[in-house]
Design goal:
The strands form 2 sheets. Strands 1, 2, 3, 4, 5, 6, 7 and 13 form an 8-stranded mixed sheet that branches. Strands 10-9-8-11-12 form a 5-stranded mixed sheet. By secondary structure, it is of the alpha/beta class. The chain has 2 domains: about 15-210 and about 400-435, Nucleotidyltransferase, domain 5 (2-Layer Sandwich); about 215-395, Nucleotidyltransferase, domain 5 (2-Layer Sandwich). It contains 14 helices and 13 strands.
């Protein structure tokens, strides 16, 4: 279950993550402060979000048990229409537990229950209120928040079916977030990417060059949320990335089914099991794994139906063996996806891998991933030069996504383009997100 972790970011040095030319230390350039919560329209239409303003990123994931909040000071450089967001200095990071009743309603949707339109509408409202309240709890009631960037709660994401087309849905309406947080809100980032022909995910790839600006290149960043995804950062090349396959969607779903627990904490049950090789080979044959980058997926592909088929294919298998096999599959599929297509074969001196997301706290899964990286890289003549949580690069592994959406929201506020064809397949030149104005105090 989510733990209530409140307080300032203290892990790693520096606590500043940003692009070159943006210093997180020492006095800032003098700026004229402008409170964007007073705006009745997006700052992109004429009023600036300025360097040093306080911005928050907020989201909830497939575990549906907590709300991640990252509050930080944003770095903005440039003038007029040439402004860009080049970093964020985290000040407060926390996971606020989701109310039990609200969590159960989200879980019902994610698990494929029959949901009426009124239930969806009410959940959209109540998640928005919960996100706004969580931000205020973490930032403090009097914090001068300039902007909240809300990813929302994903309840549907297309599986690449050409007959369906590219569409996604995140609940947690931005207007309700704005009312609960008391400031302007940017939300619904994924829809514009889909509308422009993109996959709509993974969007963190679009800002990892900012968050990991000080990290060595090449750097591969693996996110282990409900779905595993990669970012690949190389010197002199634009970021690349893609979804890779299931992670927590499979492992946590399996834990709920066979252990009656929300997760196999630390992978202790999986560590006691044996990998069923015939079952592992069958899992590795899923067609999604062979698709080229960019690609994305969700619970329609790797959700309840997939989990049920996995369990049905191994009658009589122990919980330990099922979890051990699933853990090895997540690791092998993710690593294979990174190396497929010769993406790393031209890189000299090895590649470092940084891991973020809830799976980074699972030592059994982390050990399996490192083993697969070592073995698969060696078989291709490559080398793993470093491996560990993203914290070692100043990006807290539990809050990388919240920080990423804080940057995306700030880009909307300053009018900076985010879409990149090489990342999601979307047409370039698109500013992602929708705007909800903050309350105008005194009116």
């Amino acid at each position: 279950m989510a733990e209530d972790r409140l307080g300032q970011w203290r892990v790693g040095d520096p606590a500043w993550v940003g692009a070159s030319g943006c210093s997180g230390h020492g006095p800032r350039d003098p700026v004229i402060r402008f409170n964007v919560s007073m705006l009745s329209h997006p700052p992109a239409q004429g009023a600036p979000l300025v360097d040093g303003d306080l911005v928050a990123g907020v989201l909830s994931g497939t575990s549906a048990d907590g709300i991640d909040v990252a509050v930080g000071r944003i770095a903005v450089r440039g003038h007029g229409g040439d402004r860009r967001v080049c970093g964020v200095e985290a000040t407060q990071l926390a996971t606020v537990p989701m109310a039990t009743e609200l969590s159960a309603r989200v879980r019902e949707v994610l698990d494929g229950g029959a949901i009426s339109l009124p239930k969806i509408a009410l959940l959209d409202r109540d998640l928005g209120l919960a996100f706004g309240a969580a931000v205020r709890r973490v930032a403090g009631p009097d914090a001068p928040l300039g902007l909240v960037a809300s990813h929302g709660q994903t309840v549907f994401h297309h599986d690449g079916d050409p007959g369906l087309g590219k569409v996604t849905m995140q609940l947690g309406d931005g207007d309700f977030v704005a009312e609960a947080a008391g400031c302007a809100v940017a939300s619904d980032f994924r829809t514009r990417d889909c509308a422009a022909g993109g996959e709509g995910a993974p969007l963190v790839v679009l800002v990892d060059d900012v968050l990991f600006s000080a990290a060595p290149r090449p750097l591969a960043i693996l996110n282990l949320g409900g779905i595993a995804n990669w970012t690949l950062l190389r010197a002199g090349a634009p970021p690349a990335g893609s979804d890779a396959g299931p992670a927590g969607a499979l492992l946590d779903g399996l834990a709920r089914a066979v252990l009656n627990r929300p997760m196999d904490r630390d992978g202790v049950v999986a560590a006691r099991g044996e990998v069923r090789l015939e079952l592992l080979e069958a899992l590795n044959g899923h067609p999604f794994l062979e698709r080229p980058w960019p690609k994305s997926t969700g619970l329609d592909t790797f959700g309840p139906a997939y989990l049920g088929a996995f369990m049905a294919s191994a009658p009589g298998a122990s919980a330990e063996d099922l979890l051990a096999t699933a853990t090895r599959f997540v690791a092998r599929a993710a690593v294979g996806d990174l190396l497929r297509g010769g993406r790393l074969e031209s890189l000299q001196g090895g590649v470092e891998v940084a891991v973020a997301g809830g799976g980074a706290r699972n030592p059994t899964l982390m050990g399996a991933i490192e083993e697969e990286l070592q073995a698969q890289l060696q078989s291709r003549g490559g080398r793993l030069s470093g491996f560990g949580p993203s914290d070692r690069h100043g990006v807290p592994s539990d809050f990388r996504e919240a920080l990423a959406f804080a940057v995306l929201g700030a880009r909307l506020a300053v009018g900076e383009v985010s879409s990149r064809p090489e990342v999601t397949g979307a047409l370039g030149g698109r500013i992602l997100g929708k705007w909800s104005s903050g309350p105008r105090i005194g009116l």
